[in-house]
Design a protein that fits this description.
It is built from seven helices and ten strands. The chain has about 210 residues and is α/β, with parallel strands linked by helices. Strand 9 and strand 10 form a beta hairpin.
Amino acid sequence: MSVNTIYIRLRHKVQTHPQQTLNLGDVAQVIADDSILSECLSLPVVKAEPSHGNIYILDVMTVVRKLREAYPNQSVDSLGTNQTIIEIISKKKPVSIPLFLLVWGLLFVGASLAIMNFHEDVSMGKVHQKLYTMMTGEDEAHPLLFQIPYSLGLGVGMVLFFNHLFRKRINEEPSPLEVEMFNYQQDLDRYVAMNENKESIKRIDDH
């Protein structure tokens, strides 16, 4: 009898809700014979239990064992990552309007003070005055001819830098902030995976 092979590639991260059962198709990409592919994708793999907390690490060996139990005549080959991070999302609490306004106000004031302190450190006002005097030959304490376009350009520059105007993306290139957030999320996922593995090993040693 010829033995067919089931190829699986675990997804990096999956989101689910409490008490929800994840099938193989939810946590992995699967290549198998057409006669069993649909059954493979529907194979229950893990259920989000309260004991899992907010994060559960699904190891590839768990998936392989379930496939071997369901299809003993099939060989299983795993490709790519060996773990899937399952994030268990509870019901979102409604956003508190007073808290939102408080945080928004703090960020607005903090950003404004940072910009003003920077301009004071580099004497931006005096620079504008000197530029105005060089170009017009007149002394002006408040050279609005430079200050107004500079202020508008500062806002436009921030929009271009972050590549977003409210929720609208300006172009397909990711902004530096998005790249940093992506790198942070990757580091966080690696930490969570390693920490969960250490906890699992500790529980095994305790037994």
